[in-house]
Prior knowledge:
Chain A has 226 residues and is of the alpha/beta class. Chain A contains 5 helices and 11 strands. In chain A, the strands form 2 sheets. Chain A has a 9-stranded mixed beta sheet, sandwiched between helices.
Amino acid sequence: MKVGVVRFPGSNCDQDCVVALSQFPGMSAEILWHKEDTVAGFDAIILPGGFSYGDYLRCGVSARFSPVMGAVKDFAAAGGPVLGVCNGFQILCESGLLPGALVRNRDLRFICEHTHLRVERTDTPFTRAASSGQILRIPIAHGEGCYFADNDTLRDLREHGQVLLRYSDERGYLSQETNPNGSRDNIAGICNRERNVFGLMPHPERACDPLLGSTDGRVIFQSLLS
Amino acid sequence: MPKVIVTVMPKPSVLDPQGVATAKLMKQSGLAGVGRVRVGKSIEIEFESTPDAAKLEGVARDLLSNPVIEDFRIETLP
Amino acid sequence: MPKVIVTVMPKPSVLDPQGVATAKLMKQSGLAGVGRVRVGKSIEIEFESTPDAAKLEGVARDLLSNPVIEDFRIETLP
Amino acid sequence: MTPEVTPEIVAKHGLSPEEYARIESILGRAPNFTELGVFSVMWSEHCSYKNSRPELRKFPTEGTRVLVKAGEENAGVIDIGDGWAVAFKIESHNHPSAVEPFQGAATGVGGIIRDIFTMGARPVFSMNSLRFGDIRGEEGAANRRLFAGVVAGIAHYGNCIGIPTIGGEVYFDDSYAGNPLVNAFCLGILRHEQIARGAATGVGNPVFYVGAETGRDGLAGAAFASRDLTEESKEDRPAVQVGDPFREKLLLEACLELLASGCVAGIQDMGAAGLTCSTCETASRGGTGVEIDTEKVPKRETGMTPYEILLSESQERMLVIVKKGQEGQVKEIFEKWDLPYSEVGVVNDDGLMRVKEGGRVVVEIPARALADEAPVYVREAAPKPPPHPSDSKKLLADIPEPDAAGIHSALETLLKFPSIASKRWVWRQYDHMVRLGAAVLPGSDAAVFIVREANKILAATTDCNALYCRQDPREGARIAVAEAARNLACSGAVPLAVTDNLNFGNPYRPENFLQLREAVEGLAEACRQLGVPVTGGNVSLYNESPSGAIDPTPTVGMVGLIEDAAHITTQAFQNPGDVIFLLGSPGSEIGASHYLLAVHERKAGAPPALDFSREMAVHEALRTLIRKGMVRSAHDCSEGGLAVALAESCLAGPAPLGATISLLPDTTERTDVMLFNESQSRVIISVPEDHADKVSELLSECGIPWTRLGTVTDQPSLNIRLRKDAEYSWNTEHLQHLWNNTIEEIMEG
Ligand SMILES: Nc1ncnc2c1ncn2[C@@H]1O[C@H](COP(=O)(O)OP(=O)(O)O)[C@@H](O)[C@H]1O
Ligand SMILES: [Mg+2]
C-alpha cells in the first residue's frame, strides 16, 4: 500500500508520519508536495500535523487554495481513504470534508501530553483492527483542538456512528476531567458519513515506537493496511 | 482609497474562553461593572478600488469567518 | 446596558504576518483591489453600569493591548 | 538628509569619545551618520564582547571531538561518531523579553534556531533557561505576566516551526523582578562534510538576501541589549521585533536544501545588528570585501533610509553568498519555498564593507575593523569580598532544630517552592514530542532525544544555581558545570561539550565585573577538570532593574551521548521492592541552600564545596552500574538536598510510589541538616532487589562513599527514619499534588 503524506508549507509532522508508516511491512509512504495537483498512484492520503501556511487567520483555512487539496477532495469523493491528524483534521473541517470546527483549547494554552482515547466504532478503514471500547494511549499536541459542532450536527454524527474516538480515562470513563481541551462530547476524532475520511486531534504516529512510551497508535495504521 | 473593517465574533452559542479570561482580568484590575466579554477579530482592509459588495460579503462569510463558529459584520469607511 | 468595543491593532510599523496572509487569501479567492490588510482583536464588553472612562482607558492600554507593539481605540455604543 | 555627526549624536549611539577617535583613525576621516550607526551596533557589547572578551579566552575550547571551535562560526560543532556531528548554542533574549515577553522570547527562539541551521545543521531540539521574579501573591502579578508571556512565546515559535522543546530550567527570585532571563538553546544535527561557513569567499560571487522583507522593527536591538533596563528603556520600545515562525520554517527548509545543492560559498544569518553584522562578518571571515546596495533589499515599508535598513533587526532573514554561475538553481529553491529574495551585492577583494544606495556610496569601512577590531576593555574588578561562612552550625545558630511537625512542613514548603515545584505547567505548553525523539519526557534530570537520521541518542541539560553564584560566583560556576555533567550521568550519558550563557549586571560596576571574572574562571576550571570543551555561548550584561543587578547567572548547557538505548535512565522510581542507594556521602553543608531560602527566607552562607575527583568518581560509578543494566532510576541531589531528591523520585511517575528510608548516621547532625543539606556529588539510585548485593560490591570497588538507604514501596508514603526518635512520614499522593500543581494554581488561580 502506497500512502501519500502531504507536505504543506508549515507541515511539521510529515516526516514523522513517513517514519512511523515505514515500520509496517507492506506499507510505503511518500511525501506529496502541496503544489502537486494529482494524487494518482496513492492508495491513501494523510494530511499531517503542523501549521500549514502558518495557520494564520484560522487553522487549516489556507490549505483550501492549495492545488493538492483539489486532488484530495476528488480522491475522497471517489472513496479513497483520507486521514487528517491534528492540523490535518483542522484542514478537513475547513475544507468541508468533515463537519464542525476546531477552536481554541478551553484553557487557552497549547497542550502536549499523553491522553487516553476510547474507540467508539470499528466499522471504518481506520479503526477496524481495534476492538470496540478499546482504550488507546496516544499523545495530543495542539492549541486549537477543541471540537465544536452545533447540536443538530452532533446528533447527526451520533446517529450515523461517525464519532470514532473520545477522550476518556484509562478505564474508558468519560468526564470533563478526561477532556483535555473542552471538545463537545469528548470528541477526539470523527469520520464522514461515507466513513473514508477520518480526522483526529491525537497523533497516532507518535505512538508507534516502544522507546516513546506507547505503541497504541499502530492500530490506526494497521487498520488502513488490512 | 476605500477602507473596510470586517469584524468577526464567536457565535453566542460557541464557548469563548478568551472572553471569559479577559473579563476576569478586567475585573481583577479593578474596573467596576464588567459583564460579559467576547473576543473576536478585527480585519482592516485597504482597497485600491471600491470592492464589489456582493463578493466582499461572500469573502467575509466563507473565508474571513467560519459560519460554524463565527458571525461577521462589515463596515465601510469613507 | 452600555456596551464598549475595544479594537486592538498592530502598530503600523510592526510586522503583521497574519494580515499579510489574510490579504493573500482574499486575493486568491478572487476579490479584486485588495491592498494592505491588518488583523487585530475586537473585544466587546458589556457593562452593568457606565464604566469610568479613565479607568477603561488604562485597562485598554495596559491590559488589553501592549503599547510596545499595538494601538487601541475605544468605541462606546449607546 | 542624514543628521550631522555631533558629540551628542555620538554619545546617543553609546560610543565613547575614545571610541569615536578610534573610528576616525580607522577611516582616516570622520564617519557619516550611517557609518556611525554601523560602528555603534558592531561595537556594542552584544556584538563585540568588548567587556568580556579577555575573560572568554580563559575557556578550554580544544578537544578531540571539536570540529568547529568556539568563536569561529555561529556555533561550535562536535563530532558524535559515524560521520555525524552536532552544532549547538545558547543565546539570551533578556531585554526584549522584559518589554514584550511573548514576542521577545519567541524571537529569541527564532534567533538561536537560525544560528544552528546557518551551520548547515538541521535543528532537532531546543531547551531554555528562564529566570523571573517571585510569581507568588499580589506583588507577583507583573512577574506572572512576564512568565506566562515568555513561556507562551517560546511555545508559539517552537511548536509552529516543529522543533521540539524538550528541556530547560526555571527559577524564581526577586533579583530578576523586572529583568527576566530568557536563554534559548538549540541543537542541530549534520554530517561532517555538511558544515557550512559564514565566510564571503570567491571574488565576484553574488550576494543574495533571502527571507522576510526588512522593516523598521527592532532598530538597533544589539545596542538596546547593551544598556541597563531603566525607565527610559520604555522609549526604546520599538526595538522589539515580531517573529514569524512560519517564515522561519520555510527559510530553514530552503537553506538546508540550498546547502545540499552545493551552490553556496558562504551563509550567515541576520541576527543582532542585521544586515550590518552579516555583511562585515562574512567579509572579515573570508578576508574579502562585500558590497551591497540598499535599494535592492526587499522592504516592507516605504521611505527607509540606508541607516534604517542596515540597522534593522527584522527577523527571519539570511545572507547567502552564491557560487557564481549557479544563481539560477538558487533562485529556483527560493521560489519553491515562496521566499522573497534579491541579489543585493557582490564579493570583492578590497577588504571593505561598502554599502550603496543606488549609485551613491553611503558606507565604506574596512570589514575587519568592524567585525574583529572592536575595542577591548579589561574592566576593573572589585577586590574579592571575604567568603561567607560555611559552617552549618554557625549558619543555623539562631534557628532552632525543627520538631517533627517542622520537618514535615519544611519538605512540603520546599516541594511547593516555585523554583523546585514541577514545571509541568511550562512544558505541557511545549510540543516536546514532534520529531519522534523524546525518549525521556521533560521532568527528569536531563532530556534524552533519539536522533533518528543519525541513529544516535543524545542527552542535554541546562543548569545554574544562581544562589550559589551570588554567594560565591566561582564555586557556583564550578557547581553549575558539575551539576550539568551529573544530570547527564543520571540519564546514562557521557558529556561531550558545553555552551554557556553569562548573565550579569553592568560590567562598569567593579563588583559585577568581579562576579563575571570569578564565574568565568570557575566554569573554565570545571570544564577542564571534566574534560569537556566550551563550544560557544553568549554574554548578556546590563541585567539590572531599578533594585540592582541580578544574581550572577552563568547558565551552562551541556550535551552528552548515550551509547545504547538500554542505558536510558530516568529519575522516577520504577518498581516496588527495588533497593535505594545513595552514591556519595550524606553531607552536611547547609550554606546557600534552598532550605535556608524557602523555609527561613535567607540567602546566607557559602555554597557547598565541590571536589572534582569525588564528582567524577560518582559519575563513573553510576555509569558503570547503568552499563551493567543494574539501575532502574537515578536522580541527583540538588536544591532541597536528599529529602527533596527522594520525594521527587517517588513523585515523578504517573502514580506516586513510596519509599522507606533509614539513614542512621553516627553523627549528632541536626535533622534538618541531614535531610536538606546540599553537599555536592550525590546521586540516589534504585536497583532491582536481586542486584543489590552486587551493586554494594561494585560501589565499594569504585572507592566512593555510599549508603544503602532503603526500598521502594507500593504504599503512597515516604518514610524516613534518622534516629530512634526522629521518624517522619509523608503521604506521597499529597506531596505529588503539591509538587505538580503549585505553579498551575499560581498561574491559573
Ligand atoms: N559565554 C561564551 N562562552 C564562549 N563563547 C562565547 C561566549 N559568548 C560568546 N561566545 C562566542 O563568541 C562568538 C560570537 O558570539 P555571538 O556574537 O553571540 O554570535 P552571534 O553573532 O551569532 O550573535 C560565538 O562564537 C560565541 O559562541
Ligand atoms: Mg549568529
